[in-house]
Design a protein that fits this description.
Layout lengths: L8 H4 L5 H19 L5 H21 L5 E2 L4 E2 L2 H18 L14 H18 L4 H20 L4 H32 L4 H8 L10 H22 L8 H7 L2 H28 L3 H22 L5 H22 L2 H27 L20 H4 L1 H15 L5 H15 L3 H27 L16 H15 L1 H19 L2
Antiparallel strand pairs: 1-2
Protein backbone atom coordinates (compact mmCIF):
# COMPACT_ATOMS: atom_id res chain seq x y z
CA UNK A 1 0.00 0.00 0.00
CA UNK A 2 1.35 3.44 -0.97
CA UNK A 3 2.17 5.79 1.86
CA UNK A 4 0.20 9.08 1.78
CA UNK A 5 2.28 12.09 0.75
CA UNK A 6 2.28 14.89 3.28
CA UNK A 7 3.27 18.32 1.98
CA UNK A 8 3.28 21.29 4.30
CA UNK A 9 2.35 24.71 2.97
CA UNK A 10 5.52 26.07 4.56
CA UNK A 11 7.70 23.76 2.46
CA UNK A 12 5.97 24.95 -0.74
CA UNK A 13 7.09 28.54 0.01
CA UNK A 14 4.02 30.06 -1.67
CA UNK A 15 5.62 33.51 -1.58
CA UNK A 16 7.66 32.56 -4.67
CA UNK A 17 4.50 32.18 -6.78
CA UNK A 18 2.51 35.06 -5.21
CA UNK A 19 3.52 37.83 -7.69
CA UNK A 20 2.66 35.68 -10.73
CA UNK A 21 -0.61 34.62 -9.10
CA UNK A 22 -1.67 38.27 -8.79
CA UNK A 23 -1.31 38.78 -12.56
CA UNK A 24 -3.34 35.61 -13.27
CA UNK A 25 -6.04 36.56 -10.71
CA UNK A 26 -6.14 40.02 -12.33
CA UNK A 27 -6.77 38.48 -15.76
CA UNK A 28 -9.60 36.31 -14.41
CA UNK A 29 -11.01 39.30 -12.48
CA UNK A 30 -11.18 41.39 -15.68
CA UNK A 31 -13.04 38.59 -17.49
CA UNK A 32 -15.52 38.28 -14.60
CA UNK A 33 -16.00 42.05 -14.51
CA UNK A 34 -16.85 42.00 -18.19
CA UNK A 35 -19.45 39.23 -17.74
CA UNK A 36 -21.44 41.30 -15.24
CA UNK A 37 -20.75 44.76 -16.72
CA UNK A 38 -20.93 44.61 -20.49
CA UNK A 39 -21.01 48.34 -21.15
CA UNK A 40 -18.03 49.48 -19.09
CA UNK A 41 -15.59 51.89 -20.75
CA UNK A 42 -12.19 50.52 -21.75
CA UNK A 43 -10.44 52.92 -19.33
CA UNK A 44 -11.78 50.78 -16.44
CA UNK A 45 -9.82 47.78 -17.76
CA UNK A 46 -6.65 49.82 -18.27
CA UNK A 47 -6.85 51.06 -14.66
CA UNK A 48 -7.51 47.50 -13.41
CA UNK A 49 -4.45 46.23 -15.29
CA UNK A 50 -2.31 49.02 -13.82
CA UNK A 51 -3.59 48.36 -10.27
CA UNK A 52 -2.95 44.61 -10.50
CA UNK A 53 0.54 45.20 -11.94
CA UNK A 54 1.39 47.68 -9.17
CA UNK A 55 0.15 45.16 -6.58
CA UNK A 56 2.23 42.50 -8.38
CA UNK A 57 5.32 44.75 -8.18
CA UNK A 58 4.89 45.53 -4.47
CA UNK A 59 4.38 41.82 -3.67
CA UNK A 60 7.57 41.04 -5.57
CA UNK A 61 9.63 43.73 -3.81
CA UNK A 62 8.27 42.63 -0.41
CA UNK A 63 9.44 39.02 -0.98
CA UNK A 64 12.22 38.06 1.44
CA UNK A 65 11.88 34.30 1.94
CA UNK A 66 13.86 31.35 0.61
CA UNK A 67 14.47 31.79 -3.15
CA UNK A 68 13.33 28.21 -3.90
CA UNK A 69 9.69 27.14 -3.76
CA UNK A 70 6.88 25.06 -5.28
CA UNK A 71 8.82 21.74 -5.26
CA UNK A 72 12.01 23.67 -6.12
CA UNK A 73 10.84 24.64 -9.62
CA UNK A 74 10.41 28.33 -8.72
CA UNK A 75 13.61 30.34 -8.33
CA UNK A 76 13.11 33.91 -7.12
CA UNK A 77 16.72 35.09 -6.90
CA UNK A 78 18.08 38.60 -7.48
CA UNK A 79 18.06 38.23 -11.27
CA UNK A 80 14.41 37.07 -11.19
CA UNK A 81 13.33 40.02 -9.01
CA UNK A 82 15.26 42.57 -11.08
CA UNK A 83 13.96 41.29 -14.44
CA UNK A 84 10.37 41.06 -13.14
CA UNK A 85 10.61 44.71 -12.03
CA UNK A 86 11.63 45.69 -15.58
CA UNK A 87 8.89 43.50 -17.12
CA UNK A 88 6.17 44.89 -14.83
CA UNK A 89 7.43 48.49 -15.16
CA UNK A 90 7.52 48.26 -18.96
CA UNK A 91 4.07 46.66 -19.01
CA UNK A 92 2.61 49.48 -16.89
CA UNK A 93 4.05 52.07 -19.29
CA UNK A 94 2.71 50.38 -22.42
CA UNK A 95 -0.78 49.63 -21.08
CA UNK A 96 -1.39 53.38 -20.70
CA UNK A 97 -1.23 53.57 -24.51
CA UNK A 98 -4.58 51.71 -24.43
CA UNK A 99 -6.21 54.99 -23.37
CA UNK A 100 -6.17 56.24 -26.97
CA UNK A 101 -8.60 58.89 -28.18
CA UNK A 102 -9.66 56.87 -31.25
CA UNK A 103 -11.61 53.66 -30.65
CA UNK A 104 -9.69 50.69 -32.01
CA UNK A 105 -11.07 47.19 -32.33
CA UNK A 106 -8.99 45.39 -29.69
CA UNK A 107 -9.55 47.96 -26.92
CA UNK A 108 -13.31 47.32 -27.04
CA UNK A 109 -12.80 43.85 -25.57
CA UNK A 110 -11.98 43.02 -21.96
CA UNK A 111 -10.27 39.86 -23.29
CA UNK A 112 -7.44 42.00 -24.70
CA UNK A 113 -6.53 43.30 -21.24
CA UNK A 114 -6.91 39.84 -19.66
CA UNK A 115 -4.50 38.44 -22.28
CA UNK A 116 -2.13 41.32 -21.52
CA UNK A 117 -1.92 40.24 -17.87
CA UNK A 118 -1.57 36.57 -18.84
CA UNK A 119 1.34 37.50 -21.14
CA UNK A 120 3.02 39.33 -18.23
CA UNK A 121 2.43 36.26 -15.99
CA UNK A 122 4.07 34.08 -18.67
CA UNK A 123 7.15 36.32 -18.72
CA UNK A 124 7.31 36.21 -14.92
CA UNK A 125 7.26 32.41 -15.00
CA UNK A 126 10.10 32.41 -17.56
CA UNK A 127 12.43 34.48 -15.36
CA UNK A 128 11.41 32.90 -12.02
CA UNK A 129 12.51 29.36 -12.73
CA UNK A 130 15.53 27.36 -13.84
CA UNK A 131 13.33 24.38 -14.79
CA UNK A 132 13.08 24.02 -18.56
CA UNK A 133 9.50 22.73 -18.18
CA UNK A 134 8.27 25.80 -16.31
CA UNK A 135 10.24 28.12 -18.64
CA UNK A 136 8.46 26.44 -21.56
CA UNK A 137 5.06 26.86 -19.88
CA UNK A 138 5.78 30.57 -19.37
CA UNK A 139 7.06 30.92 -22.94
CA UNK A 140 3.94 29.39 -24.47
CA UNK A 141 1.53 31.23 -22.14
CA UNK A 142 3.00 34.58 -23.14
CA UNK A 143 3.38 33.69 -26.82
CA UNK A 144 -0.20 32.48 -27.29
CA UNK A 145 -1.48 35.65 -25.59
CA UNK A 146 0.67 37.83 -27.88
CA UNK A 147 -0.45 36.07 -31.09
CA UNK A 148 -4.08 36.70 -30.17
CA UNK A 149 -3.54 40.32 -29.10
CA UNK A 150 -1.85 41.16 -32.42
CA UNK A 151 -4.70 39.55 -34.42
CA UNK A 152 -7.33 41.42 -32.38
CA UNK A 153 -6.45 44.65 -34.21
CA UNK A 154 -8.73 43.08 -36.84
CA UNK A 155 -7.06 44.25 -40.04
CA UNK A 156 -5.71 41.97 -42.73
CA UNK A 157 -2.14 43.13 -42.12
CA UNK A 158 -2.53 42.40 -38.36
CA UNK A 159 -4.00 38.94 -38.92
CA UNK A 160 -1.19 38.16 -41.37
CA UNK A 161 1.39 39.36 -38.81
CA UNK A 162 -0.20 37.17 -36.09
CA UNK A 163 -0.15 34.10 -38.39
CA UNK A 164 3.53 34.68 -39.26
CA UNK A 165 4.41 35.12 -35.59
CA UNK A 166 2.39 32.03 -34.62
CA UNK A 167 3.93 29.84 -37.34
CA UNK A 168 7.51 30.75 -36.48
CA UNK A 169 6.72 30.68 -32.74
CA UNK A 170 5.38 27.12 -33.06
CA UNK A 171 8.62 26.08 -34.78
CA UNK A 172 10.68 27.74 -32.03
CA UNK A 173 8.59 25.97 -29.36
CA UNK A 174 9.29 22.62 -31.06
CA UNK A 175 13.02 23.43 -31.07
CA UNK A 176 12.89 24.28 -27.35
CA UNK A 177 11.15 21.00 -26.47
CA UNK A 178 13.53 18.95 -28.63
CA UNK A 179 16.58 20.67 -27.11
CA UNK A 180 15.23 20.17 -23.57
CA UNK A 181 14.60 16.48 -24.34
CA UNK A 182 18.21 15.99 -25.48
CA UNK A 183 19.62 17.68 -22.36
CA UNK A 184 17.31 15.59 -20.17
CA UNK A 185 18.59 12.44 -21.90
CA UNK A 186 22.22 13.50 -21.32
CA UNK A 187 22.00 14.87 -17.77
CA UNK A 188 18.88 13.25 -16.30
CA UNK A 189 17.48 16.63 -15.25
CA UNK A 190 15.55 19.57 -16.68
CA UNK A 191 16.80 22.00 -14.00
CA UNK A 192 19.61 24.23 -15.25
CA UNK A 193 21.58 24.10 -11.95
CA UNK A 194 21.69 20.28 -12.01
CA UNK A 195 22.38 20.23 -15.75
CA UNK A 196 25.35 22.57 -15.17
CA UNK A 197 26.80 20.20 -12.55
CA UNK A 198 26.70 17.24 -14.95
CA UNK A 199 27.87 19.16 -18.03
CA UNK A 200 30.84 20.77 -16.27
CA UNK A 201 32.16 17.47 -14.90
CA UNK A 202 35.74 16.74 -15.98
CA UNK A 203 35.81 15.51 -19.54
CA UNK A 204 32.06 15.63 -20.13
CA UNK A 205 32.23 18.58 -22.51
CA UNK A 206 35.54 17.51 -24.04
CA UNK A 207 35.92 16.24 -27.58
CA UNK A 208 37.47 13.02 -26.24
CA UNK A 209 34.02 12.12 -24.87
CA UNK A 210 32.79 12.37 -28.45
CA UNK A 211 29.27 10.92 -28.28
CA UNK A 212 28.27 13.13 -25.37
CA UNK A 213 29.89 16.18 -26.94
CA UNK A 214 27.99 15.79 -30.22
CA UNK A 215 24.70 15.36 -28.34
CA UNK A 216 25.41 18.48 -26.27
CA UNK A 217 26.11 20.47 -29.46
CA UNK A 218 22.89 19.22 -31.10
CA UNK A 219 20.84 20.06 -27.98
CA UNK A 220 22.52 23.46 -27.75
CA UNK A 221 21.71 24.30 -31.40
CA UNK A 222 18.01 23.52 -30.86
CA UNK A 223 17.83 25.57 -27.65
CA UNK A 224 19.82 28.37 -29.26
CA UNK A 225 17.34 28.54 -32.16
CA UNK A 226 14.38 28.71 -29.74
CA UNK A 227 15.93 31.43 -27.55
CA UNK A 228 17.23 33.21 -30.67
CA UNK A 229 13.68 33.45 -32.01
CA UNK A 230 12.41 34.99 -28.77
CA UNK A 231 15.29 37.48 -28.71
CA UNK A 232 15.13 38.05 -32.51
CA UNK A 233 18.81 37.15 -32.95
CA UNK A 234 20.20 36.74 -36.47
CA UNK A 235 19.09 34.73 -38.49
CA UNK A 236 15.89 34.15 -36.45
CA UNK A 237 14.88 37.83 -36.68
CA UNK A 238 13.08 37.67 -40.05
CA UNK A 239 9.61 37.81 -38.43
CA UNK A 240 10.30 41.11 -36.66
CA UNK A 241 9.67 43.82 -39.33
CA UNK A 242 6.47 42.21 -40.67
CA UNK A 243 5.03 41.52 -37.21
CA UNK A 244 5.86 45.03 -35.99
CA UNK A 245 4.35 46.53 -39.15
CA UNK A 246 1.13 44.53 -38.68
CA UNK A 247 0.86 45.34 -34.97
CA UNK A 248 -0.23 48.68 -33.58
CA UNK A 249 2.66 50.93 -32.55
CA UNK A 250 1.69 50.34 -28.89
CA UNK A 251 1.94 46.56 -29.32
CA UNK A 252 5.11 46.78 -31.45
CA UNK A 253 6.79 48.83 -28.71
CA UNK A 254 5.72 46.27 -26.09
CA UNK A 255 7.11 43.43 -28.25
CA UNK A 256 10.42 45.25 -28.69
CA UNK A 257 11.07 45.51 -24.94
CA UNK A 258 9.16 43.30 -22.49
CA UNK A 259 9.32 39.77 -24.03
CA UNK A 260 13.03 40.27 -24.72
CA UNK A 261 13.77 40.95 -21.05
CA UNK A 262 12.31 37.52 -20.23
CA UNK A 263 14.32 35.99 -23.10
CA UNK A 264 17.57 37.57 -21.87
CA UNK A 265 17.19 36.03 -18.42
CA UNK A 266 16.57 32.56 -19.90
CA UNK A 267 19.60 33.08 -22.19
CA UNK A 268 21.70 34.28 -19.24
CA UNK A 269 20.87 31.21 -17.13
CA UNK A 270 21.29 28.74 -20.02
CA UNK A 271 24.31 30.15 -21.93
CA UNK A 272 26.24 30.77 -18.69
CA UNK A 273 26.81 27.00 -18.40
CA UNK A 274 28.67 26.87 -21.73
CA UNK A 275 30.41 30.27 -21.55
CA UNK A 276 32.05 29.35 -18.22
CA UNK A 277 32.97 25.90 -19.57
CA UNK A 278 35.06 27.73 -22.25
CA UNK A 279 33.83 25.50 -25.05
CA UNK A 280 35.42 26.99 -28.21
CA UNK A 281 32.72 25.89 -30.71
CA UNK A 282 29.79 27.21 -28.64
CA UNK A 283 31.63 30.42 -27.73
CA UNK A 284 32.44 31.06 -31.41
CA UNK A 285 28.81 30.40 -32.37
CA UNK A 286 27.57 32.91 -29.77
CA UNK A 287 30.22 35.48 -30.66
CA UNK A 288 29.48 35.35 -34.42
CA UNK A 289 25.71 35.48 -33.80
CA UNK A 290 26.04 38.59 -31.61
CA UNK A 291 28.18 40.39 -34.22
CA UNK A 292 25.80 39.49 -37.07
CA UNK A 293 22.73 40.45 -34.97
CA UNK A 294 24.20 43.88 -34.34
CA UNK A 295 25.43 44.46 -37.89
CA UNK A 296 23.05 42.92 -40.47
CA UNK A 297 19.79 44.55 -39.19
CA UNK A 298 21.66 47.87 -38.93
CA UNK A 299 22.65 47.65 -42.59
CA UNK A 300 19.07 46.70 -43.59
CA UNK A 301 17.70 49.60 -41.50
CA UNK A 302 19.74 51.99 -43.67
CA UNK A 303 17.48 51.07 -46.61
CA UNK A 304 14.15 51.62 -44.80
CA UNK A 305 11.79 54.46 -45.71
CA UNK A 306 9.32 53.79 -42.90
CA UNK A 307 9.97 54.81 -39.28
CA UNK A 308 8.20 51.77 -37.80
CA UNK A 309 10.18 49.23 -39.88
CA UNK A 310 13.35 51.17 -39.14
CA UNK A 311 12.64 50.93 -35.39
CA UNK A 312 11.92 47.20 -35.83
CA UNK A 313 15.39 46.56 -37.29
CA UNK A 314 16.87 48.92 -34.69
CA UNK A 315 15.33 46.84 -31.86
CA UNK A 316 16.94 43.69 -33.36
CA UNK A 317 20.34 45.41 -33.41
CA UNK A 318 19.87 46.63 -29.81
CA UNK A 319 19.00 43.07 -28.76
CA UNK A 320 22.34 42.02 -30.29
CA UNK A 321 24.16 44.66 -28.23
CA UNK A 322 22.45 43.50 -25.03
CA UNK A 323 23.24 39.88 -25.95
CA UNK A 324 26.92 40.87 -26.18
CA UNK A 325 26.82 41.35 -22.38
CA UNK A 326 25.81 37.69 -21.93
CA UNK A 327 28.65 36.53 -24.23
CA UNK A 328 31.19 38.61 -22.25
CA UNK A 329 29.97 36.77 -19.15
CA UNK A 330 31.47 38.94 -16.36
CA UNK A 331 29.67 40.51 -13.39
CA UNK A 332 30.10 43.97 -14.89
CA UNK A 333 28.67 42.78 -18.22
CA UNK A 334 25.60 41.28 -16.54
CA UNK A 335 25.05 44.57 -14.73
CA UNK A 336 25.49 46.38 -18.08
CA UNK A 337 22.80 44.16 -19.64
CA UNK A 338 20.15 45.25 -17.13
CA UNK A 339 21.21 48.92 -17.14
CA UNK A 340 21.13 48.97 -20.95
CA UNK A 341 17.67 47.39 -21.09
CA UNK A 342 16.16 49.73 -18.48
CA UNK A 343 17.36 52.75 -20.50
CA UNK A 344 16.30 51.15 -23.80
CA UNK A 345 12.83 50.46 -22.36
CA UNK A 346 12.31 54.15 -21.51
CA UNK A 347 13.65 55.38 -24.87
CA UNK A 348 11.85 52.85 -27.04
CA UNK A 349 8.60 53.45 -25.17
CA UNK A 350 8.92 57.11 -26.08
CA UNK A 351 9.64 56.44 -29.76
CA UNK A 352 6.82 53.92 -30.32
CA UNK A 353 4.51 55.92 -28.04
CA UNK A 354 4.97 59.02 -30.23
CA UNK A 355 4.08 56.97 -33.34
CA UNK A 356 0.94 55.72 -31.55
CA UNK A 357 -0.10 59.25 -30.52
CA UNK A 358 0.18 60.29 -34.19
CA UNK A 359 -1.88 57.36 -35.48
CA UNK A 360 -5.03 58.38 -37.39
CA UNK A 361 -8.09 56.48 -38.57
CA UNK A 362 -7.33 57.06 -42.27
CA UNK A 363 -5.25 53.87 -42.22
CA UNK A 364 -5.30 51.57 -45.26
CA UNK A 365 -4.10 47.95 -45.04
CA UNK A 366 -0.51 47.52 -46.30
CA UNK A 367 -0.17 51.31 -46.59
CA UNK A 368 1.89 52.53 -43.64
CA UNK A 369 1.09 55.89 -42.01
CA UNK A 370 4.69 56.14 -40.79
CA UNK A 371 6.73 56.69 -43.98
CA UNK A 372 9.43 59.35 -43.77
CA UNK A 373 7.60 61.46 -46.37
CA UNK A 374 4.50 61.69 -44.17
CA UNK A 375 6.65 63.34 -41.49
CA UNK A 376 8.15 65.87 -43.92
CA UNK A 377 8.02 69.40 -42.53
CA UNK A 378 6.55 68.25 -39.20
CA UNK A 379 8.59 70.95 -37.45
CA UNK A 380 6.57 73.57 -39.37
CA UNK A 381 3.20 71.91 -38.70
CA UNK A 382 3.74 70.90 -35.05
CA UNK A 383 7.14 71.95 -33.64
CA UNK A 384 6.44 70.38 -30.23
CA UNK A 385 5.60 66.96 -31.74
CA UNK A 386 8.69 67.07 -33.98
CA UNK A 387 10.93 68.05 -31.05
CA UNK A 388 9.77 65.19 -28.81
CA UNK A 389 9.99 62.51 -31.54
CA UNK A 390 13.39 63.93 -32.52
CA UNK A 391 14.51 63.75 -28.87
CA UNK A 392 13.73 60.01 -28.66
CA UNK A 393 15.47 59.33 -31.99
CA UNK A 394 18.54 61.24 -30.75
CA UNK A 395 18.42 59.17 -27.54
CA UNK A 396 18.25 55.90 -29.51
CA UNK A 397 21.28 57.09 -31.52
CA UNK A 398 23.24 57.05 -28.27
CA UNK A 399 24.11 60.75 -28.25
CA UNK A 400 25.05 62.27 -24.89
CA UNK A 401 23.52 63.26 -22.52
CA UNK A 402 20.43 61.17 -23.37
CA UNK A 403 19.55 57.87 -21.69
CA UNK A 404 20.90 55.18 -24.05
CA UNK A 405 24.36 56.81 -24.29
CA UNK A 406 25.12 55.80 -20.69
CA UNK A 407 23.92 52.24 -21.31
CA UNK A 408 26.18 51.91 -24.37
CA UNK A 409 29.16 53.43 -22.54
CA UNK A 410 28.83 50.99 -19.64
CA UNK A 411 28.40 48.06 -22.05
CA UNK A 412 31.50 49.07 -24.05
CA UNK A 413 33.42 49.52 -20.78
CA UNK A 414 32.48 46.00 -19.64
CA UNK A 415 33.69 44.58 -23.00
CA UNK A 416 37.03 46.44 -22.77
CA UNK A 417 37.58 45.39 -19.13
CA UNK A 418 36.94 41.74 -20.04
CA UNK A 419 39.49 41.91 -22.89
CA UNK A 420 36.89 41.81 -25.70
CA UNK A 421 38.42 44.79 -27.54
CA UNK A 422 37.19 43.66 -30.99
CA UNK A 423 33.62 43.33 -29.68
CA UNK A 424 33.80 46.83 -28.16
CA UNK A 425 34.98 48.27 -31.50
CA UNK A 426 32.13 46.50 -33.36
CA UNK A 427 29.58 47.97 -30.89
CA UNK A 428 31.01 51.47 -31.52
CA UNK A 429 30.94 51.00 -35.32
CA UNK A 430 27.33 49.78 -35.20
CA UNK A 431 26.35 52.76 -33.05
CA UNK A 432 27.83 55.02 -35.74
CA UNK A 433 25.86 53.21 -38.48
CA UNK A 434 22.67 53.50 -36.40
CA UNK A 435 23.24 57.26 -36.01
CA UNK A 436 22.79 57.68 -39.78
CA UNK A 437 19.38 56.02 -40.06
CA UNK A 438 18.04 57.58 -36.82
CA UNK A 439 18.96 61.03 -38.13
CA UNK A 440 17.23 60.51 -41.49
CA UNK A 441 13.64 60.94 -40.19
CA UNK A 442 14.87 63.93 -38.15
CA UNK A 443 16.14 65.52 -41.38
CA UNK A 444 12.70 64.96 -42.97
CA UNK A 445 10.95 66.58 -40.00
CA UNK A 446 13.21 69.62 -39.65
CA UNK A 447 14.89 70.21 -43.01
CA UNK A 448 12.07 69.58 -45.51
CA UNK A 449 8.83 71.29 -46.39
CA UNK A 450 5.51 69.45 -45.92
CA UNK A 451 4.54 67.24 -48.86
CA UNK A 452 1.86 68.69 -51.17
CA UNK A 453 -1.53 67.23 -50.22
CA UNK A 454 -0.02 65.37 -47.24
CA UNK A 455 -1.88 64.85 -43.97
CA UNK A 456 -1.24 67.83 -41.71
CA UNK A 457 -3.11 66.37 -38.70
CA UNK A 458 -0.84 65.02 -36.00
CA UNK A 459 -1.43 63.85 -32.42
CA UNK A 460 -4.94 62.69 -33.45
CA UNK A 461 -4.80 59.73 -31.09
CA UNK A 462 -3.44 61.60 -28.05
CA UNK A 463 -5.17 61.79 -24.68
CA UNK A 464 -3.97 63.47 -21.48
CA UNK A 465 -2.89 60.19 -19.72
CA UNK A 466 -0.93 59.12 -22.83
CA UNK A 467 0.73 62.52 -23.11
CA UNK A 468 1.61 62.34 -19.40
CA UNK A 469 3.39 58.98 -19.85
CA UNK A 470 5.31 60.28 -22.87
CA UNK A 471 6.19 63.36 -20.80
CA UNK A 472 7.53 61.06 -18.06
CA UNK A 473 9.66 59.24 -20.66
CA UNK A 474 10.99 62.60 -21.94
CA UNK A 475 11.87 63.64 -18.38
CA UNK A 476 13.66 60.34 -17.62
CA UNK A 477 15.51 60.42 -20.95
CA UNK A 478 16.85 63.93 -20.29
CA UNK A 479 17.80 63.51 -16.60
CA UNK A 480 19.19 59.97 -17.08
CA UNK A 481 22.70 60.99 -15.97
CA UNK A 482 21.28 61.47 -12.44
CA UNK A 483 19.69 58.00 -12.50
CA UNK A 484 22.74 55.97 -13.57
CA UNK A 485 24.48 55.65 -10.20
CA UNK A 486 21.35 54.70 -8.17
CA UNK A 487 20.33 52.27 -10.93
CA UNK A 488 23.79 50.66 -10.96
CA UNK A 489 23.73 50.27 -7.17
CA UNK A 490 20.34 48.52 -7.26
CA UNK A 491 21.28 46.31 -10.24
CA UNK A 492 24.65 45.45 -8.65
CA UNK A 493 22.95 44.36 -5.43
CA UNK A 494 20.49 42.03 -7.16
CA UNK A 495 23.06 40.60 -9.62
CA UNK A 496 25.54 39.93 -6.79
CA UNK A 497 22.83 38.19 -4.75
CA UNK A 498 22.31 35.80 -7.66
CA UNK A 499 26.00 34.95 -7.97
CA UNK A 500 26.38 36.27 -11.53
Amino acid sequence: MLEPINISLESLNLGTIAPVSIAIIGALGILLTDIFNKNKHKSLYVILVVLFLIFDLFTLLAFNGDERGMFDVMLVDGIAILSQCIIIGGSILFVFLGLSKLRFQEFRYAEYFALYLLAVAGFQFMVSSDSLILIFVGLETSSLALYTMIAMHNRMVSIEAAVKYFTMGALAAAFFVFGAMIFYAITGSVELAQMAQVLTQDGFLSKENYSNYVLVLVGFVFMFAAIGFKLSLFPYHTWVPDVYQGSTSAMAGFLSVVPKMAGFVVALRFFEIFIHANDPIIQTMLYVTVILTMTIPNIIALQQKDIKRMLAYSSVSNAGMAMAAIVIGTHQATTALFLYWVLFTITNFGAFGMLWLNRGKEYVDYNSPYTFKKFSGLAQISPFTASILGLFLFALTGLPPFALFWGKMYLIGSAVNAGHIALAIIIVINSAIAAYYYLRPISYMFLRDPEAGANTKFMQNATTPMKSMIGLAVFLTIISILLIEPLLNIINMYVSNSGF
